[in-house]
Amino acid sequence: MRFDPYGQLKPHGPGEWFSRRSEAFTRTCPFSPSAYNEDELAQVQFPMARNLDDRIGRYEAAYVGHVEQGDLRAFGSSGGMVTWTAMELMRRGLIDAVAHVAATPSPDEGAPLFRYVISRSEASLRAGAKSRYYPIELSEVIKAIRFTPGRYAVVGLPCFIKAIHLLRAEDPVLRERVVFTLGLFCGHMKSARMVESFAWQMGEQIQAVDNIDFRAKDPSRPANWYTARIGLKTGGERRQDWWHFVDGDWGAGFFQNSACNFCDDVVAETADISFGDAWIEPYSSDGRGTNVVVIRSPVLDRIVRSAFAAGELCLKAVDADFVHQTQAAGFRQRREGLALRLSRRRFGVRPRKRIAPLPPRLSVRRLAVYLLRGQITYWSHRIFFLARLLNKPGLYTRWARTGLAVYQGFAYSRGKIGAAIDRLQAAAPSLSPRSKTSADLHD
């Protein structure tokens, strides 16, 4: 896997590899139409699950809360539950190591800022805390797991966890050694160019960047007020709130990987346990961070219940509706939006998804949001490539600022564009009846 000109990881190899058919590959690529889907994998993994919901899949229990004891909550991006769970599995002797993403120490020019590593101590796990909005891949740790006996947990995004299960079905060594999977709720994956864009907008070149914290935590501010902090190789740092970036609106789709347009798993439905941010009040205003947790493994459910009873965790049981509300924008994009995208004519591989490829009945505003988001995704890679080639950051930032203004005019219930669309919808509602999910327009 290597970075392409747009800062996305792509496979590289001999020309004949790309033209050679491989039945095994069609079964193990998580986006292959021939691979098992999330429902089929979850049926095998969790056949006796107590609950089944068509949005979050099979599960034993769901909670909202945080780590109560120690400093894990303060140290992580959210409530500290991901690192706590990995540590607890290690403390109980249920695993020997954890495969997770960590920062690359003092990366050379052109080297990735983050990569998968294998941790065998709590100190190493702590170093991997925090959110990483950066392209990464699993090949090196898969090789390491195959080479070194032991029991492993793997932390990953929904498509990564799905890929692990597809590989386990083909490889008895991985099936024996990967014993737990810890999933992360996902909006979409960004390209490496987002870090570069943030650096530009803070007055720095990417060559000067030593590290980045995408979500520098401040308990005095709401959790959803993201602040990016870049550490410089000279020892200094720069900080800026995301809303001051021309591409800081996550929902607009800047630098999104195109594969994410054809994913229908928001909450890592095939993972033994999965974690997200509780983007719903009063939790989103708590700058200390709060997790929403979906547990599918009975073993992990017992561990979490025991820790809650001992006062290590502060948790409240919630239902599938609550989990859905905390990720409402992501579910719209991967249900309503995906149905629209699947209904459009495509060339090449046709995805096989759990969503019917039918154009949903959308409001004018929602239709515009999905179409604009697709255009921003497509052109952000290309305009940034040109600006980078010419060394003219302003070429990209001016385009991005204009694109964001148009997108937000449709996406949010404010501004002249939004008001005009609302008047059009009210005057001619029969032109485009609203769907049940189009009322909440905040993306």
UniProtKB/TrEMBL annotation:
> From the Swiss-Prot or TrEMBL record, what is one GO molecular function term?
oxidoreductase activity, acting on CH or CH2 groups, with an iron-sulfur protein as acceptor
One Pfam family cited in the UniProt record for this chain: FrhB_FdhB_C
Q: Which residues form the Coenzyme F420 hydrogenase/dehydrogenase beta subunit N-terminal domain?
A: 63-143
Q: Which InterPro entries match?
A: Co_F420_Hydgase/DH_bsu_N (IPR007516), FRHB/FDHB/HCAR-like (IPR045220), FrhB_FdhB_C (IPR007525)
Superkingdom in the source lineage: Bacteria
Q: Where is the Coenzyme F420 hydrogenase/dehydrogenase beta subunit C-terminal domain?
A: 151-319
Protein name as it appears in the record: Coenzyme F420 hydrogenase/dehydrogenase, beta subunit C-terminal domain
